[in-house]
Amino acid sequence: MNEYDSNRILDLFKKIGYTRTENISETNCYVLNTCHIREKATDKVYHDVGRLKKEFRNKKKPILLVTGCVAQAEGEEMLKKESYIDGVFGPQSYHKIPKIINKIEIEKSRVNSTEFDVIEKFDNLNLIKTKCSKISSFLTIQEGCDKFCHFCVVPYTRGPEYSRSNNEILSEARQLIDAGAKEITLLGQNVNAYNSKNFLLSDLICALNEMSGLERIRYTTSHPKDMTDDLIDVHKNCKKLMPLVHLPVQSGSSKILKLMNRKHNIDDYLNTIKKLKDKNPSIKFSSDFIIGYPGETEEDFKLTLALLDEIDFINSYSFIFSPRPGTPASKLKNIDKKITKKRLISFQKKSEEIIKNYHQELLNKKVEVLFENSINKDGKYFGRDKHANAVMVQSSQDLTGKIFDVKITNFNQNTLFGEISL
Questions:
Q1: Prediction pTM value
Q2: How far apart, in whole angstroms, are the C-alpha atoms of residue 137 and residue 159?
Q3: CATH of the domain at 350
Q4: Are 321 and 334 in contact (CB under 8 A)?
């Protein structure tokens, strides 16, 4: 979602005469788009500010803006802590960029714009044609979350659930396709909670499935509680919907899920997995895991490892519990860091073994790959198969935007390597 937001922010800057530069020394305005999901991501903000101060020590200072969830959560505090920052604006305020820049440039004042006004934001963005389209493009359809998981800061930084109108989304999708997109990933903090006047995510996927020029559809991130039967059904009926579901479980222990306020247990989760597999046996799964949540015992952790074995996630994103200020879990007693680190290493080792075995099974088999771009001038091309596995091939022909069957000949932990017959 931050990549989507960054692209829309760039569209807004273009409207007021700015162009993007890859050369930091040429920068007149520097924008940091931030994440608040873990403490490490927040720390990076101040590290980046420090690097910028060093770069411009003997030059004219650029305008420095901080946006995203850190800005929303710590706006006033950031302005007090770091005088080098000229303005902060939250995820629901970036449509105000022209006014913010004008206030900084003309009035020479610092700006804090962290209001929650998601409707006004998208009303403004709908007037600006998106120009940042890629072969595989992102499209935000929903923001915010009403689940209030005890570890999660999203409801406080992104606000309550809001769904854009289906007409807005389909119009933007058409723009992306006309600009060259072959694949669209629908985004939301809780994307399967999408509901615009009873037009659901399943309806949206079916509408996109009929759009000419679009080859692939994906969506992320889902909450298990909102994986409804109508959405499960489209995995059988919509051929453009890719057979990969990212379904964060967070823990393999129902006890820990209850402590997290996740509103589902392991039996619910496994039942959803079964329903999806029954509709489409080719579906595979990826998930998120929090290791060392307060109250997690060794037995709870073993249940998480057992879940890995049971489902064979082709990707598992795992993190040690990071208390976020203002959340209920931030008040709980943390587990000893040595224990959580040991558990994380154990978890990731098992996860990597599962992925390695999965990649091993793909050797000498053909996968259908949509190529997104060339890697360098040596004729290496990057794409993804239906399950979003990264695939690299060598070719003298431009493969960008095209779909080919690729025979897998080698792999490493993150990438499949193959060859195509043209």
A1: 0.86
A2: 24
A3: 3.80.30.20
A4: yes
